[in-house]
Amino acid sequence: MGAISVHRLDYGYFVRPAEETGTGFPRVEPCLGYLVRHPDGLLLFDTGMAGDAEVDQWYRPRRTAVADALAGLGIAVADIDVVTNCHLHFDHCGGNGLFAGKPIYVQAVELATARSRPDYTMAELIDIPGSDYRELSGDGELLPGVFAWPTPGHTAGHQSLVVRTTGGTVVVAGQSHDNASSFSADLLALRARRDGHGPPLPEVAGWVERIERLEPSEVVFAHDHSRWQPGSG
After folding, report:
1. Residues 200-218: tens digit of each pLDDT
2. Contact, 209 vs 196, CB < 8 A?
3. Which of 51, 56, 169, 202 has an alpha carbon within 20 to 30 A of 217's alpha carbon?
4. Cα Rg for the chain, rounded, in angstroms?
């Protein structure tokens, strides 16, 4: 197998209102996607922000179009072979309509939720003409050495990407955590439990320990420019 690499895409940013941050203050967050260069094709993880008048008033986004983000890596929209979304909220699947006829991998429970709940996402982003959803019920190998893993929490059907590169395993964690620090905090909670630290301790999803066992070289996120690396938590 040839070289496999992961590259970050900048889709712009939005302002998360104080009502959603838990701090009493608004927070500006990036919207990031990731491109996997693979000998068997190009895989795009997340496709940027859509919007309407209500969304734009609430989140005040500044968008970078998918085509422009890809162009920064010398890639055209037509070059993408495979698409996957961590979940189907507007800020992760906004550009899916550009990839008609290309396979879009999604957890079955995520797609079912998006189709059945009018308040879940922007309905016009889901069943776009030409959408070729490939539904997963658990793990799936999207390309050799590139796997989708369920990481529920933010949504029931949230998934992350595990990429076996020549430099180590990269986990593209999407919005499994708001930021690298919260992922690090979960790892420390696991460590405290193993050390026999008494309660109370935070509850940690079982899939966090599964990711830990991979011994990833880095974990990257959808709304944080920071990357988790060994020794950082």
Report:
1. 999 999 999 999 999 999 9
2. no
3. 202
4. 17
The pLDDT value recorded for residue 2 is 74
CATH superfamily of 5-220: Ribonuclease Z/Hydroxyacylglutathione hydrolase-like (3.60.15.10)
77: left (phi over 0), alpha (psi -120 to 50) or beta: alpha
DSSP 99: G
pTM confidence score? 0.96
pLDDT tens digit sequence for 41-62: 999 999 999 989 999 999 999 9
For residue range 149-204, list pLDDT tens digits in order: 999 999 999 999 999 998 999 999 999 999 999 999 999 999 999 999 999 999 99
Cα separation values, 119 from 89, 116, 122, Å = 10, 9, 8
The token pair at 117 is 């709940």
Closest CA to 89 of 171, 143, 29, 163: 29
The beta strand positions in the chain, using DSSP E, are 5-16, 27-38, 41-45, 62-63, 82-84, 103-107, 132-136, 140-143, 146-150, 159-165, 168-172, 218-220
Q: Using CA atoms, how far apart are residues 213 and 191, in angstroms rounded to an integer? A: 13
